[in-house]
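Quick one: structure for this chain?
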Amino acid sequence: MVVVQDPPVTSPEPRRANPVLAALRNFWRQLTSMRTALILLFLLAVAAIPGSVLPQRSVNIDDVEGYFVEHPDLAPVLDRLGMFEVFASVWFSAIYLLLFTSLVGCVVPRLAEHWRAMRSAPPNAPARLDRLPQHATIEAAVGGAEEIGAALRKRRWRVAVRGDTVSAEKGYLKETGNLLFHFALLAVLAGVGFGSWYGWHGNRLLVAGSDTAFCNTLQQFDEYGLGPRVNATDLPRFCLELTDFKADFLPSGQPSSFRATVRVDDGPARGFSVNSPLRLDGANVYLLGHGYAPVIRYTDRYGQAQTTVAPFLSVDGMLTSEGVAAFPDANIDPKGGGDREPDAQVAFEGLYLPTAPDQAPFTRSVYPAERSPALMLWAYRGNLGLDAGIPGSVYRLDPRQVDSGRLKRVGEATLLRIGEKMTLDDGSTVEFMGTRQYATLSIRYDPGEKIALGGAALGLAGLLLSLTGKRRRVFFRITTGGSSLVEAGGLPRTDYSGFAEEFKQTVEAVERANEEGSVKR
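Got it. Here's what it folds into:
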């Protein structure tokens, strides 16, 4: 007899997982965990600290330039790290996008799970109710399970009746609040992102007077920034004229209130303050600060007079201000064909004191309001370097021109009061005519601010629900022996110190309902 043996049975070789897909799956699992979301949220808060401590170009470029002057070695390093444009930097955007992705991947699955949990019936009662944290027995004549369920429904429990057992649960608002809070956080992030894409901003130093009015075009901004989806033609059309500025100060010199009054186009004057911006159609105007612009008249050696209004930037809390008044078209011989002499240009470095001290040294103002205004001037003559086409600050002279000798100081510094004149070596004169006030304005449009505001409100509501909601379950089982008994058990799903009292009240309510039902029967 020939015995035929079957070939040995071999199990198939298990498929090896693709290491790249496995790594990506593990990365996604780690990224969408709640722990990672909390870490990224903390990093985002830490990354925003430099934007609150250091001056930002998008808010006030003058403060950034002042920081460069005060910290010439540190400022360039911080600038390379993006510390003066924190919220537009690559590293801040990376944290922002990772947080957004993490929250989406974390919240969406939880939403689906919560939806299924809310639609599902409460679980079956455990076999041993006496092992639950709360346990009680009702020794009285009772009705059926439906009557117990009805009593629980009156107390807003979700109830499932299965034969002689009743399961009930309450507290789903806690998870609802958690999800609402996280979706609100997503709304805030989306609003910030939407605003950065479709928003714009611009800063302008606006001097009082109709001859210094400003129109909302890019060419008239001192500094501006447009979102990636915004063109220059998208800016709303309006013009502003600063008609008045009122600043009140405490005796110590601390400002107590600022209020600017502007005329929008040809309409009536409208006032706004630091905490109450001017609302326009398609833009908001914010008041950032103010200062003084000395009015200086220069009469050259040919008798030609020129007047300039030169804004000076404040250097301390008493509004001691520094600036430059330049006259590049001065000393042009009217008989010489009107050609400009590059080496005969004139400029004045100035130190303005709203309230000058009674005696020297006249280096700092003693009060920010104009009680005793004085202007210290240093005269320069030569080539200002304005024709070279190299961008420079309008608030200070080009130090390269001074160091090279192409621009030389003329005479000594002179302190002028309003109406006083100074005469230079060539017979030309400069007169301090007075001052005008100016306001530093930030004009902005952020279409995502309403989305962010709504998200913040929803987040607050979700947080309240999350803190007040408590998950808990109660179970009842009817046992029949010599007499009917009801066994009850309670289980808190979250830390809830008042659950013992609530469980007691619930059992008492069920007992009363059953007694009332027995009497009716």
